[in-house]
């Protein structure tokens, strides 16, 4: 049986664990871990504009960008055994303000050469309610 035939889609828990590794890198200021989780052709779509992998990683130049986070309302769509779309709500605190903020996130994960990488992310800030 060919490798392509044996591949199965990951579980929500597996992909959520990878997404949490990205968030943990933001909290720890770990640019190396962040770079390893993002594809070379990563595209971020944020309220501040478009971002590539280098832009995403460069935010760690001075210090961690997040102090704390909580992820909830997770959903996953399997587009193929090697491509999944994770959507969720992120509640987080930035170190400089410590005020809680929230956003909805869509995160595309792809299995490339048997390694899962984040190739696309879009953040939609939620207004305070």
Can you characterise this structure?
This protein has one domain (3-125): Nuclear Transport Factor 2, Chain: A (Roll). Helix content is 26%, strand content 47%. It has four helices and six strands; from the N terminus they run αααββαββββ. The protein has a six-stranded mixed β-sheet. The mean pLDDT is 92.
CATH architecture: Roll
**Tally of distinct domains:** 1
Mean pLDDT value: 92
State the name of the first-level CATH class. Answer: Alpha Beta
Instruction: Give the distance, in angstroms, between the N- and C-terminal Cα atoms.
Output: 53 Å
Radius of gyration: 15 Å
Number of helices: 4
Helix/strand structural class: alpha+beta
**SSE succession:** HHHEEHEEEE
Query: What is the spatial order of strands in the main beta sheet?
Result: 2-1-6-5-4-3
Shape: globular
User: How many beta-strand runs?
Assistant: 6
In short:
By secondary structure, the chain is α+β, with helices and mostly antiparallel strands. Helices cover 26% and strands 47% of the residues.
Give the arrangement of secondary structure elements:
Blueprint (H helix, E strand, L loop, with lengths): L2 H4 L5 H17 L2 H7 E9 L2 E3 L1 H6 L9 E13 L2 E11 L6 E13 L2 E11 L4
Parallel strand pairs: 1-6
Antiparallel strand pairs: 1-2, 3-4, 4-5, 5-6
Question: What key attributes describe this structure?
Answer:
alpha+beta, 6 strands, six-stranded mixed β-sheet, Nuclear Transport Factor 2, Chain: A, 129 residues, 47% strand, 26% helix
């Amino acid at each position: 049986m060919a490798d392509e035939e044996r591949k199965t889609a990951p579980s929500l828990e597996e992909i959520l664990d990878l997404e949490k590794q990205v968030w943990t890198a933001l909290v720890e200021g770990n640019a190396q871990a962040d770079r390893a989780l993002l594809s070379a052709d990563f595209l971020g779509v944020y309220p501040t504009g478009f971002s590539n992998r280098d832009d995403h990683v460069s935010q760690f130049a001075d210090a961690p960008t997040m102090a704390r986070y909580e992820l909830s309302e997770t959903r996953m769509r399997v587009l193929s055994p090697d491509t999944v779309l994770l959507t969720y709500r992120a509640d987080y605190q930035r170190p400089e303000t410590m005020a809680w903020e929230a956003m909805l996130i869509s995160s595309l994960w792809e299995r490339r050469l048997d390694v899962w990488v984040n190739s696309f992310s879009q953040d939609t800030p939620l207004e305070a309610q």
